[in-house]
Amino acid sequence: MVTVTKGSNTLLDINFHDTSEISVPPKLIDQILGQEKAIKIVKKAAIQGRHVLLIGDPGTGKSLLGAAASEMLPHDVMEDILVVANPKNPNNPRIVTLPSGEGKIRVEMAQERARKEEGRRNMLSIFIPILVVLLVMMWAKFDPQIVPGALLAGIFLFMVMNSMRGRSEILVPKILVDTANVTTAPFVDATGAHSGALLGDVRHDPYQSGGLGTPPHERVEVGLIHKANRGICYIDEVGTFSIKTQQQLLTALQEKKFQITGQSELSSGAMVRTEPVPCNFILIAAGNQETIRNLHPALRSRIRGQGYEVFMDKVMEDNITNRRKLARFVAQEVAKDLKIPHFTKSAVEQVIYEAQRRSGRANFLTLMLRDLGGLIRTAGDLAVERGHQLVEETDIIDAKNLAITLESQITSDTIEKYKEYNLVRIKMGLVGRVNGLAVLGNTGGIVMPIEAAITPALHSGAGRIYATGQLRVIARESVQNISALIKNYLGKEISNMDIHIQFVGTHGVEGDSASVTIATAVVSAIEDAPIRQDTAMTGSLSVRGQVLPIGGVTYKAEAAARLGIKRVIIPIQNYGDLKLDKQYEGLEIITVSHFSEVLRNALIPSKAFIADRFKPDTAIEMEEEEDLVVVQKKQNTSSNPTVTT
Ligand SMILES: Nc1ncnc2c1ncn2[C@@H]1O[C@H](COP(=O)(O)OP(=O)(O)OP(=O)(O)O)[C@@H](O)[C@H]1O
Ligand SMILES: [Mg+2]
What is the pLDDT of residue 645? Predict the structure, then answer.
């Protein structure tokens, strides 16, 4: 029995011994956590027969929503679909639709008739030759010279009749869609299906001539869109289908029926084309932002005109209701897995804590639940290995080290290398070198040292900024913004300098969260002021020096701690997002809101005064009726060399 406790300071306000006491709702739609927006739309789509495009990150419940939609559709309107030979035009087989369950009966009846007919023909093919032999012998008055010839003629006749039997057999219909035993409307996942599997196909027949071949209707293969008739057709990454297939899918959506023909133009199957086959399905297309780009515009317009587009949530609010839902999620995953034991309450709380951490934001829980499910299974396997009756808190904690993502493994490897080669020299103060922080994938924090050096400008009066590290668009633009900041505030003539910025050991940098790091390295190089190497930093920067929030702060800070770094400078807005694992709690966190504060904390104490040159703009309050806060403009006195990055 689950009881509610009041005033508890734990993560869960309900009391239970283990998750076996938490009941799992029978319907899929009730098992989905978060995604309220998507649930509402999918429900509407199921009732009104609309199509849906779900865009979002992997493992956030898109397929689950599709399957849940099929449970909501009526299943008493199902129909069986048969393909029947067309004696007038064998290459154009007929399609027959029957109420659910009648398809099989029709086929069985035809088989029975075929069997009887065959029996009759069998009888005739024996009886007629015997009769002929007897008549011939009687006519010849049983002349012994005639007997062998008559017998031979009889055998020949038998063989001819036997070989003709196959050709005139009754053509039994073939069942394409059998809904006799269905309890819910079909849910067909057509992700990655080749065009034949998706749209139906007609097999090639090598013996098409001479009457030896398989009748065309028997070679017809049903498509997934037809199997989804009166149900859901779910397609992930629909943009990966060829344009032709997407066009055909569009036709199927419009017509609600689609003829089956051989997909390979060289095959004899291409000569066969059935009558239109019903495919009245709801399309639930899924994917990520890339999918939208590759989606055939007409197909997207069709979905938009006849349905909805939804962006899946990545996080849900961290409140008591959602924490309870996460507890139920653990119970669901255990029930689904069948191989792992239930979780104790404290183990569930560890899962909730991890969901907080993974959200990357204060007061939110992650909805990347496939990954979280992975952690649950790893902890379960560990508990089994350790002979635990229930999954305990320690199993989850240890599982976190086992279930680390590929990106985290890569970053751990990099961190080891940095340690080995002494790439980060914690105890020193170095000019032009700053420990930046970055994330690989979603969860792999990494320390990314950045170095800056100053050289006399190649072309006097036209100093440039050179940045290496294969910077992508946003990173390149951030370098540009930093040059504005430096020109604005430093008051130094920098038009005669070339500034070189290097992302040490890193390539393919994207994002602007290294802005504070680059700016610090450049200021350090220009001013010849050493930077504390026991400090790492992350933060985006406005052109006026304001530090702006970034993502992945927890993973970044933890990467710094793993390398032995003692202090981490982060944007003040990110402080709430920080959820360090216990082992990293000794790390000093410095929150900043302006670049001058970054410098004050990063420069060695004797040079900290340089930070004052970057004093923040003063904000003044407007008159009462204008409740705006306006930032005072600071005069720019330095000259402006052309800077290109
Ligand atoms: N919102 C959710 N509620 C409950 N369980 C979820 C949710 N999202 C994901 N899961 C769990 O993760 C598993 C995978 O989810 P699902 O297949 O629906 O993800 P998806 O969004 O379709 O991912 P992909 O884009 O990789 O196909 C589910 O079977 C379920 O166990
Ligand atoms: Mg999926």
Answer: 22
